[in-house]
Amino acid sequence: MKRFTQFLVDDLLQSLLARLFGAVAIIIVCGGVALSGDLQSDDAVAKAYQLRLDGKVDEARTLLNDHITANPADAAGYYELARVYYYMGPGDLKNIQSTIESGEKSIQKAVELDPSNPVYRYFAAQVTFFKAYVPIQSDKEHAKEHLAAVCLAYEAVLESKPDYGEPMLNLVELYGGLPEELGLGRDTAKAAQYEARLQVIDPVLAGKGHCIMMPDDFDRIAYWKDLAKQHPGNMRVLEELGKTCLREGKTDQGVKYLEEVMKAEPSNSVLYLIIANHHIMKIWQDEQAKGTSIPLAITALNDFLATKPIAPLKAYALGLLAKLNYAQEKKAEGDKYLEQAKATDAYFSKASGIPLADLFVPPGEISHNHTFLYKPF
Description:
Shape: globular
Oligomer: single chain
Number of helices: 17
């Protein structure tokens, strides 16, 4: 029991870290945007990206540091280096502060060199939110100033790409959906303006924005079911319906919808991680649920591993399996999974939440991953 209790304490602390890194589902639906730099730059950045996806993070970092030393005006190199540092953060907790500071400097340099690039601007906005997350909650005197800085960062993304839906939806949440316990109020008029713009751009993102704006007693499951009828076969709608069911405690329904999405789109296997995290969250809420929730989480993780994911996500899943086995007092099994995780990727995320989706979007492509800032998946 002591080991299980420590597992819960550790995971609750790490869940904060996961929130700071924007843990969400990964759905890479990209539109091309050329990054600055010559062919040599593109080759170096692409190689570093692939090294990271193969679990060779130190090699990727060394390659990029050498590259920007030789090419100090290459924004693409600084952006990719920033992603390396932000990936390393949750996997190297002893050095997380210096690692994150290095990542912040790198993305600031990328924006300085190519200020009109929405890829860099969006990542910079996520970094700004990361920095402001704790002060917004703990520094009551300056919380509104921190929030304003975050909003400005996301609005800067729209200056470079006015029809970019994902940061627009982040602004709907920031202006119209902050948790009431923060005591910062809401600017519903401004949130509604962004929601109206989303209606023109993307009905699924608009639907998410609408649900953010609605009161707590609004029937979000019924809303997404109705939207699914209006858009038959739209897997993005079905995915959000499944996630909404999980958030509302309708586990069986949520899993059914998400499995339907994965059957139609096998590449969206990261939804197994959403299911696993949901079961782990149930343990946080009620320790008595571990008897049923741990086996279900383990099943979902094994299903995910069977899809042969990239090294960072494979190692992350193995790390969760280690935690869950330790929670069941199965030390030998836990040790086995932990060693497998380390061998796969030495910097695998120790947080409970899924690593930030935008870390894995190919260089030069716009991310269309949406990250809720104040709710799970």
